[in-house]
Amino acid sequence: MSFFKRNIIDNISETPLINLEKINKALGTNVVVKLEKNNPGGSIKDRAAVFIIEQAEKKGFLKPGGTVIESSSGNFAISLSMIGAAKGYRVIALVDPKATETNKALMKAYGAEVITVTEQDDTGSYHKTRIKLANELARKIPGSYRPDQCFNVLSAVAHYHTTAKEIHAQTGGLIAGIACAVSTGGQIGGIAEYFGKHLPETKVICVDAYGSSIFGGPSHAYKIPGVGLGWTPRNISDVSKIDFVYRAKDESAYIAARLLCRHEGILVGVSSGAVLLAALNASKRLRNIHPIVAVLGDSGERYLDTLFNDSWLESNNIDTGVEFERLLTLAESMEAPVEAGNIDSNYRDDLISLLEVPATTITHYNMLDK
């Protein structure tokens, strides 16, 4: 038995569950967090990135020396950049102004080429303009492949076989629920599919941002990176498989992430602040005996120039206070979640042709190999 990993990609493995000792005692909650920042690329996106790339290699879509082109707000592109460095692929990442300087520097450190797309789409976000440009580049560059996390349901398949199974094994199924953020839908889609099949009494808790229209409603710009989209991604096969949908406010997510760092010593990103608040609110609501697992997607080190920069926060009208008592107020003041049966969908299959999604992208579950 070898005492070392074959390569850095082989080190994508089980991430820890950590109890929130002080927070749970003070708030009367029962929440544990899963630290996805412990993946070698620093985020939960490692799981889907390596799965999709390996599937592309098996299908012959990506050959040695090929080019990987992706639209990403940061973490998925960083994961692909790491994989590209390890496997010898050229990586081109299309980011937007919400990507931090640290994230862009990480991509470049791995050798990726970074293009910042500044044109907003009709939802006030950058997803559609980024994707359209990525697809244009893929058609022009020979030997290129688009992992296409927004439309590729392999992302959900990856989380079904890794994140969801792992949580089940780690807890022995003794959990009340799982909370995670939603953007391209891979995490929540895979988790909802797995637990709906294997442990249906487990509550699936989805955390979105105000301004996102994944579950309908008006679209507008927001400041939480890595959360939200202008439509319901097909990684979510059926919104009825989700039990609760929370929406987090920008300022609340930033404050909560800072409080978690200051009072539990857990340094995570902005989206994790949103997930934390939803998990705490759900725990107060459910009065759960078994814990709720809050999946925290990445590390706060990537947001030192924003989330942990008081000057940046003040310039964006975000409070810099870190008093412990604020956490209960923030958690209890969250708007009540939309519950299963009342969750709207906003699927936009017309975007597949409109944005010229590549034929190599598996856009629907019925296209999957058995």
Which helices and strands, and how do they pair?
Elements lengths: L16 E3 L1 H7 L3 E5 L9 H15 L7 E5 L3 H13 L2 E6 L5 H9 L3 E4 L10 H14 L3 E2 L8 H18 L5 E5 L4 H13 L4 E7 L34 E5 L1 H15 L5 H17 L5 E5 L13 H6 L10 H7 L5 E2 L10 H5 L16
Parallel strand pairs: 2-10, 3-4, 3-6, 4-5, 7-8, 7-10, 8-9
Antiparallel strand pairs: 1-2, 9-11
Task: Summarize it.
Helix content is 38%, strand content 13%. The protein has helices at 21-27, 45-59, 75-87, 101-109, 127-140, 154-171, 186-198, 250-264, 270-286, 310-315, 326-332, 350-354, and strands at residues 17-19, 31-35, 67-71, 90-95, 113-116, 144-145, 177-181, 203-209, 244-248, 292-296, 338-339.
The major beta sheet can be summarized as: 7 strands, mixed
Strand content: 5-15%
Number of domains: 2
Question: How many helices in DSSP terms?
Answer: 12
Task: Report the mean per-residue pLDDT as an integer.
Answer: 95
Helix/strand/pairing category: alpha/beta
CATH class of the largest domain: Alpha Beta
CATH topology of the largest domain, by name, is Rossmann fold
Strand order of the largest sheet: 1-2-10-7-8-9-11
Radius of gyration: 19 Å
| Low-pLDDT stretches | none
Order of helices and strands: EHEHEHEHEHEHEHEEHHEHHEH
Kindly state the number of beta strands: 11
Helical content class: 25-40%
**N-to-C span:** 32 Å
Shape from CA axes?
globular
